[in-house]
Amino acid sequence: MAYKTTIQQHTYSFSDLKTLLAKASPYRSGDVLAGLAADSYEERVAAQMALAEVPLKNFLQETVIPYEADEITRLIIDTHDATAFAPISHFSVGAFRDWLLSDYADLLTLQQIAKGITPEMAAAVSKLMRNQDLISVAKKIEVITRFRNTIGMKGRLSVRLQPNHNTDDVKGIAAAMMDGLLYGSGDAVIGINPATDSPAAVTNLLTLIDQLRQQFDIPTQSCVLCHVTTALQIMHKAPVDLVFQSVGGTEKTNRSFGIQLSLLEEAYHAALSLQRGTIGNNVMYFETGQGSSLSANAHEGVDQQTCETRAYAVARHFNPLLVNTVVGFIGPEYLFDGKQIIRAALEDHFCGKLLGLPMGVDVCYTNHANADQDDMDNLLTLLGVAGCTFIMGVPGADDIMLNYQSTSFHDALYIRQVLGLRPAPEFEHWLIKYGLMDGNGRSLPVAPSNLLLKNYL
User: Fold this and answer.
1) Among the four 10, 274, 288, 430, which has the fewest Cβ within 10 Å?
2) Is 362 assigned a ligand-binding role in the annotation?
3) Residue span of the signal peptide, if any (predicted)?
4) 152 plus 215 within the same structural domain
5) Residue 443 annotated as binding?
6) Domain match, 365 and 224 both
């Protein structure tokens, strides 16, 4: 089906929905690299005008990747909730945007329709939005998940404590964990990217985190971000809380990661059977990032933002505790500069929350990107306003193992203080108990007599 619009006697035609979505996408280097971007600003506007007229129902009839060729397409179509979709089924993409920005789209209503929205619908409407629109709608949405604490409540911002070490040195990781905890980070998860994916190394790191957690009765969860097959291998031998996996928006992408939906299903049910959560059973942690499908030569001709949003269908199916878009990590080939990184992060956060996911963002960039820490400060502040579920806490904001720039424990303190945000409630109570935070959410100096330090050191 062709889509057309006319600007000053010039008619622009787009052969199918996949092409229309790509041409309507805000400019980014990855789509140019893939040969999918609009050839001019005028063509992009024409595509956005045509996209605004497309009925949402079309996305259920015309898929961007054929149903028979891709298991994620089958997942999207087969699990679509027609009842949840009914209240918005009469909208075009443009009318959907206007409705989302209206007072009619309140928290309860947005929660009720989430499972009726397909990733392509979410991606489409985001392409018609300014940054402030993405922030405004995302701010309305609350997605709450639980394991040992409660993540995602309004007025709260959690932090993944990321104590990576380039040799998995136990002392270095332990020091980083203590540093983060003393600054109030770690309520989302204490999550380590291991230098090696070996079962023995992953087990050692999980045991290290779990011993610290139990010693001080810390209401949080642990994760070593190994491949899902490694987690399955050690699950009944090591203290596995959350099962991690990077996921993409096409079946080919996920196969390049060594996974498919049936494997994730197996891991999900295995983790549930452990019953390690104390107040909830959200046991999965997924990471994504715009450009992953293109970098794997598996994008199927779909623009990178739509591919990214399709990855959220995979995540949504497994009721995760956390979903994290590692937005600037893949590099400038896909998001060239600070402006593109900021836009992509706001899109990802908006689309994920609209689909009902607990979205966090790794506010980050690689050293060869045209970006700096001021760009990241701007993005961090915008995400705080938008109600982001969690961010990263990396010592000094400089990950010595993954070699990229992220956010520090101090950055988390900044955004909580300026916007009046607080940690997860159970974790906040723990911080107060150990004298690391006062009742007003302010970080306190660490006294030499602090039991947390004395008992651990």
Assistant:
1) 10
2) yes
3) none
4) yes
5) no
6) yes
